[in-house]
Amino acid sequence: MARKRYGKDDILRLIREVEVHCKSGMEVVSACRSAGVSDKTYDGWRRKYGGMNRAGLAEMKTLEKEKKRLKKSVADLELDKLILKKIATILSRKPERIGSAQCHHSCPSKARRFRAAGVLRYRHCAFDHALSWRAP
Question: Is the pTM of this model over 0.85?
Fold first, then answer.
């Protein structure tokens, strides 16, 4: 038998319905049965949503959306951090290990421009290599 999924509004309605039955003298188990849910489910819902009204439910929904957005933002920042670490390791290598000679033969104007600016000869090529780096 398939399980029924209740929305948060339905859950609040069912909690109130069970509470009304209990106040009228019914036992919790029979009140839950008349509402169509098990007493275990009702206890879980009461712990999570107990004492909450519609305004509280709306606030909870907005907080959940904000949490989801912030988690995605943190994941993006972690990815950026890993990429920058990889670029830093590539840029810190010695020129002979990254093959700067062949790079400067293919782009002599860049090499002259960087030497004139006082930048180490292999730095721009290492950066180009870092940007074109692919994971093995």
Answer: no
